[in-house]
Amino acid sequence: MCLHDDEDIWHIVICPGHEDGFQQVESEVTSKIMKFIKKSTSSTKIVQGQLEHIIFEYKDEAFPLLKERNRIELIRGLISDTIITKLQRFLSKKVTNEVVSRIIKHFHKAFRKYIWNPL
Ligand SMILES: [Zn+2]
């Protein structure tokens, strides 16, 4: 955990003290979404590792600099067009829409669970 007094969003997304927490958030969100995708569509070829790189864009080695922006957008409940476009390569429009709202929901839940614990 982080011991800084001044914990705003900008600090939390770059603080090494929260890196483990973010990793737990990311893997929990990815596995929940993967489960939902498997239930909703039998025809997709997407696998968990790909899904994780799509939702958390900076995990793709081609885009390491996106980390802060990617995290801040998710904290604010936003999903970038790039993420949506990539999801639609594997999923129907309908399933994509459902996935997008579930990403936001699960991200917020996991964020509160692993990172932001108001005491
Ligand atoms: Zn800190």
Q: Which helices and strands, and how do they pair?
A:
Elements: H1 9-14, H2 19-40, H3 48-55, H4 67-75, H5 81-88, H6 93-114
Bound molecules: zinc ion.
- How would you sum up the global shape? elongated
Number of helices: 6
Q: Summarize the helix and strand pattern as letters.
A: HHHHHH
Mean of residue pLDDT values: 89
Q: What's the story with the biggest beta sheet? A: none
Low-pLDDT windows of residues: none
Question: Strand percentage, roughly?
Answer: under 5%
Radius of gyration: 14 Å
Give the class from helix and strand content and strand pairing. mainly alpha
Task: Identify the quaternary structure here.
Answer: single chain
Q: What number of structural domains do the residues give? A: 1
Report the helical percentage: 55-70%
> How many runs of DSSP E, i.e. beta strands?
0
Which molecules are bound besides the chains? zinc ion
Amino- and carboxy-terminal Cα gap: 13 Å
